[in-house]
Write a structure and sequence with these properties.
With 251 residues, this protein is α+β, with helices and mostly antiparallel strands. The chain folds into 2 domains: 8-202, Bira Bifunctional Protein, Domain 2 (BirA Bifunctional Protein, domain 2, 2-Layer Sandwich), CATH 3.30.930; 209-250, SH3 type barrels (Roll), CATH 2.30.30.100. 25% of the residues lie in helices and 31% in strands. The longest helix is centred in the C-terminal third of the chain and has 22 residues, at 169-190.
Length: 251
């Protein structure tokens, strides 16, 4: 079992509306006092009443699943902190593989983790800046440990659904925090390229046909060529490669 990483603190709440919302509240409270009291803080909730995913969608957090947010103050420009969604995906995939070493664990652009081709985890980044223009970033991660929803647009699964005894959320968070600390240190030392290469090695669908639904609701089809130096999806549409900054992918 991994040990809790140095330099990171944690809070465990019985119930929150949303761990990302709590991260925002604490970041803004720090802004009002002029300090960065918590530094790197993991916030976990045993139950969320208003969890959310990308584009404001509801995210269900059933009992026994992991709902956690890392409140971080990256020592980097806000223009590149979105790259940490890929570091978070790698950390989550590492955590899943720790508990399910024989399962096919993959990452899915832009910020999901799959197990046996189904969605196991989702990641949501939100951020802002305090009164001194010091950036804060909330990296919300939800992982289906003990159960998963049915009838979702992209099929979901859980560790229990794979026939694996689900770890406790606390044990899962310990592994996740340790793996994120690793990938964050890699990102800080070598930049995005090392993270990008590692992410592509675990990515589902590279070189295969995909359907991309853009933020404008336009749908494009082509071959998934990878991601560029900024994390945008590269879609080959009959020989013309297009970079897509935001959207959703279907195989």
């Amino acid at each position: 079992m991994s040990f809790w990483p140095q330099g990171y603190s944690r809070q465990v709440h019985a119930e929150l509306d949303s761990t990302n919302a709590e991260a925002r509240r604490q970041a803004e409270a720090e802004s009002e006092t002029g300090g960065a009291e918590h530094g790197s803080l993991w916030i976990m909730a045993e139950r969320q009443t208003a969890g959310r995913g990308r584009r404001g969608r509801a995210w269900q957090t059933a009992e026994g699943n992991l709902a956690a947010t890392l409140l971080l103050r990256p020592d980097a420009p806000q223009s590149v902190t979105g790259q940490l969604s890929f570091a978070a995906a790698l950390a989550t995939a590492d955590m899943a593989a720790h508990f399910a070493p024989n399962a096919a664990i993959a990452v899915k652009w832009p910020n999901d983790v799959l197990a046996e081709g189904k969605k196991l985890a989702g990641i949501l980044l939100e951020g802002g800046a305090d009164k001194s223009n010091k950036a804060w970033l909330a990296i919300g991660i939800g992982v289906n440990l003990a159960s998963h929803p049915d009838g979702t647009e992209f099929p979901a699964t859980s560790l229990a659904g794979l026939g694996i005894a689900a770890p406790s959320p606390e044990d899962a968070l310990t592994i996740l925090a340790a793996r994120f600390a690793h990938w964050y240190a890699v990102w800080m030392k070598t930049g995005f390229e090392t993270v990008r290469t590692a992410w592509l090695a675990r990515a589902k669908g590279v070189g295969a046909p995909i359907r991309a639904r853009l933020a404008t609701h336009e749908t494009r089809t082509g071959v998934f060529e990878g991601i560029d130096a900024n994390g945008a999806l590269l879609l080959n549409e009959q020989g013309q490669v297009r970079a897509i900054a935001a959207g959703e992918v279907f195989f």
